[in-house]
């Protein structure tokens, strides 16, 4: 099943499932507000269950009504055209047999993703939701024993050890490109032979810029990622390097490697997705064009590869791959995260929540680009004084309380 099926990761996952239709049956789909798109996806994939949060202020009845209306429209189109054009997926052929009678069970409300993710007898739950709202769905899937193909890094970073301790070994399969690359490279040696993890970063649209140059950056500039086409939050996080900060912590938790042995390296081409250095001086890199099709397909089908998931590097052409150290002065987000992770079990939940608030404020024109990471730093520093920091890390409710505190503290900075 796919949580966040209408997003960038979700639609690319559906495209992979269309390509390898003999291997996948979609049991459930869940989305936020895109009712029309979800209804079309439902008609194309015929899940038993769909989940919808719905737009703010809409009643559950209105959301249901809207969905059923769009479902009827999508059925009509599919019957007429023999299929449906889905955003981010392409044209999907639809079998007319049983189409009229098809109506999925519909779960509506803020909890819809968690309910869908927690359905029993599902092999793999792909979590493609954005933000730490993905934490409960991740935990629900783990609890019922499904494999979690995890794109939603925030749930792991915010939940921390809680998530890793709830999961059985191998139950979380990384979809994030860097972590998929590391998981692939780790197959080259024993865990005891691993020296360091090298996480590549594109450097974002402002690679090489000084702190002063970053002062007047606009949302439009921040969303112009040089190599990847992704959702708004992760793209903004790439520009501030907060994405790399979250990914360093994600790697630390997933692969149980100490923070001082995880090295972020700027690689503007985004072809080497990360590397593992072994004790004998050998470095194993995973390379493919910047296309999430590969890590998504591998995450859904782990440990087996899906043929044709993405085109390979064209080795008949000349290529230049560059690697540079990170500029921690202009982009302090990674160092800040390492310190936060070492301070308490909930400091990264606070870091991430403050960042989510600051990213929204930046896009709303309330704060400037550089303020995003400054806000995160201020909120994390203020949290040091909270006597409950360690206690919060022992339960989901505690993590959510720490997050709520952080969101409030962040908003007060520009109120
Ligand atoms: N995009 C990429 O290439 C990569 C993304 N990632 C990670 O994957 C995750 C998803 O990113 P991306 O696909 O870019 O994000 P998008 O913003 O494109 O998609 C987010 C999805 O979450 C859904 N959603 C929004 N609010 C809720 C809610 N309250 N409950 C349930 N679902 C909700 C959205 O639904 P709707 O649109 O219907 O409102 C949408 O389907 C992030 O954690 C990101 O960091 C990691 C590596 C690469
Ligand atoms: C595709 C993917 O995994 C993103 O998380 C990507 O890594 C973002 O690029 P940056 O390296 O610029 O953060
Ligand atoms: Mn990534």
TrEMBL record:
It comes from the Bacteria. The keyword Flavoprotein does not apply. It catalyses: 2-C-methyl-D-erythritol 4-phosphate + NADP(+) = 1-deoxy-D-xylulose 5-phosphate + NADPH + H(+). 1-deoxy-D-xylulose 5-phosphate binds at residues 153, 177-178, 202, 225, 238, 243-244, 247. Mn(2+) binds at residues 176, 178, 247. Transmembrane segments: none annotated. It holds the Pfam family DXP_redisom_C. It is an enzyme of class 1 (oxidoreductase). Belongs to the DXR family. This is 1-deoxy-D-xylulose 5-phosphate reductoisomerase.
């Amino acid at each position: 099943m796919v949580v966040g099926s209408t997003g960038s990761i979700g639609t690319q996952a559906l495209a992979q499932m269309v390509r390898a239709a003999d291997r996948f049956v979609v049991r459930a789909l869940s989305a936020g507000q895109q009712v029309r798109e979800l209804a079309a996806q439902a008609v194309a994939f015929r899940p038993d269950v769909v989940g919808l949060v719905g737009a703010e202020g809409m009643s559950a009845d209105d959301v249901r009504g809207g969905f059923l209306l769009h479902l009827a429209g999508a059925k009509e189109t599919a019957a007429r055209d023999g299929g449906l054009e889905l955003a981010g997926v392409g044209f999907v052929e639809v079998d007319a047999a049983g189409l009229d009678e098809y109506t999925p069970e519909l779960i509506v409300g803020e909890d819809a993703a968690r309910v869908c993710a927690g359905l029993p007898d599902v092999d793999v739950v792909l979590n493609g939701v954005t933000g730490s709202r993905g934490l409960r769905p991740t935990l629900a899937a783990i609890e019922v024993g499904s494999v979690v193909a995890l794109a939603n890094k925030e749930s792991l970073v915010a939940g921390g050890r809680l998530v890793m301790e709830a999961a059985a070994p191998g139950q979380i399969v990384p979809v994030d490109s860097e972590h998929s690359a590391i998981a692939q490279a780790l197959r080259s040696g024993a865990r005891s032979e691993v020296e360091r993890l090298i996480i590549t970063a594109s450097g974002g649209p402002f690679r090489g810029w000084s702190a002063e140059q970053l002062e007047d950056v606009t949302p439009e500039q921040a969303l112009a990622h040089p190599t990847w086409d992704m959702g708004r939050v992760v793209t903004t996080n790439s520009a501030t390097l907060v994405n790399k900060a979250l990914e360093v912590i994600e790697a630390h938790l997933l692969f149980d490697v100490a923070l001082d042995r995880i090295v972020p390296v700027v690689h503007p081409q985004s072809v080497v997705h990360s590397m593992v250095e072994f004790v004998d001086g050998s470095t194993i890199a995973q390379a493919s064009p910047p296309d999430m099709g590969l890590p998504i397909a591998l995450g859904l089908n782990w440990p087996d590869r899906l043929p044709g998931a993405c085109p390979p590097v064209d080795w008949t052409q000349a290529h230049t791959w560059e690697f540079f150290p990170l500029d921690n002065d202009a982009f302090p987000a990674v160092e800040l995260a390492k310190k936060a992770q070492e301070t308490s079990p909930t400091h990264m939940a606070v870091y991430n929540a403050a960042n989510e608030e600051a990213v929204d404020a930046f896009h709303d024109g309330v704060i400037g680009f550089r303020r995003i990471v400054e806000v995160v730093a201020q909120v994390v520093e203020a949290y040091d004084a909270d006597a409950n920091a360690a206690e919060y890390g022992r339960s989901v409710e505690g993590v959510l309380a720490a997050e709520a505190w952080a969101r409030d503290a962040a908003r007060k900075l520009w109120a």
